[in-house]
């Protein structure tokens, strides 16, 4: 949480600097942290609906108050990790297929979703070894204008077919740019381990 508070403070400093440099952004004041605020909900809806548009053009059209509020909505404050339930597909009496995905969700101070990063693994096993080459799927998504998914920074795999285990690791890259300045970045990483006995484990980093 301290890290995200630091990011928010940095964003406010950058906004203030843009004013000094002659930018169109106004100095920020502490935002309303009530997620049920009509202003918060209305602006969040506009930011979601504007996904895919040019952010600087969109931002320049906002009122001073909404510009300040937009920065607070777009600034990350917390994250949560979810794991999908295992799905079992019986391939043959000696071969079972399983899959599971891990998703990291990034939220702002209002606990409104900013972005998601997911990695999923599918593997087949007979209790002793992994019988087929495992499949790995990685995806990143931003739910709001301003944030951009830049792709996978790093990806690695170990084990797999004919082994008793398989490990998949990937790290994604996201950033928030306001008027040409990178205000915030996010580098979520996911490590998944799967085994020939049908068990699994995972770790995540932010």
Task: Please explain how this structure is put together.
The protein is of the alpha+beta class and 206 residues long. The chain has two domains: 2-77, no CATH class; 79-205, no CATH class. It has four helices and ten strands. The protein has helices at residues 2-20, 38-49, 55-60, 64-74; strands spanning 76-83, 87-92, 95-108, 113-125, 135-142, 147-159, 165-178, 181-186, 189-195, 200-205. The strands form two sheets. Strands 1, 2, 3, 4 and 5 form a five-stranded antiparallel β-sheet that branches. Strands 6, 7, 8, 9 and 10 form a five-stranded antiparallel β-sheet that branches. A hairpin with a 4-residue loop joins strand 3 (95-108) and strand 4 (113-125). The longest helix is centred in the N-terminal third of the chain and has 19 residues, at 2-20. The protein is elongated, with a radius of gyration of 21 Å. The termini are close together. Mean pLDDT is 84; it is low at 5-30.
Output the helix-strand order. Answer: HHHHEEEEEEEEEE
Number of structural domains: 2
Stretches where pLDDT is under 50 for at least 5 consecutive residues are 5-30
Main sheet specs: 5 strands, antiparallel
Q: Whole-Å distance between the termini?
A: 12 Å
Helix content bin: 10-25%
- How many extended strands? 10
Total helices: the number is 4
Q: Pairing-aware structural class of the strands and helices?
A: alpha+beta
Radius of gyration: 21 Å
Mean pLDDT: 84
Percentage beta strand: over 45%
Which overall shape is indicated by the principal axes computed on the Cα atoms?
A: elongated
């Amino acid at each position: 949480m301290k890290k995200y508070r630091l990011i928010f403070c940095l964003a406010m400093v950058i906004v203030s600097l843009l004013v000094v440099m002659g930018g169109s952004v106004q100095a920020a004041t502490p935002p309303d942290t009530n997620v049920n605020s009509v202003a918060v909900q209305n602006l969040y809806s506009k930011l979601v609906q504007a996904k895919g548009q040019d952010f600087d053009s969109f931002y320049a059209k906002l009122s001073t108050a909404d510009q300040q509020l937009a920065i607070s909505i777009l600034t990350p404050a917390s994250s949560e990790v979810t794991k999908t339930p295992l799905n079992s597909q019986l391939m043959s009496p000696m071969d079972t297929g399983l899959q599971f995905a891990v998703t990291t969700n990034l939220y702002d101070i209002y606990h409104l979703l900013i972005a998601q990063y997911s990695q999923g693994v599918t593997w087949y096993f007979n209790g002793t070894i992994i019988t087929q080459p495992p499949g790995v799927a990685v995806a990143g998504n931003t739910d709001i204008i301003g944030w951009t998914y830049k792709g996978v920074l790093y990806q690695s795999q170990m084990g797999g077919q004919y082994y008793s285990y398989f490990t998949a690791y990937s790290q994604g890259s996201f950033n928030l740019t306001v008027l040409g300045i990178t205000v915030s970045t996010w580098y979520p990483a996911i490590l998944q381990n799967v085994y020939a006995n049908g068990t699994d484990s995972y770790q995540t980093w932010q």
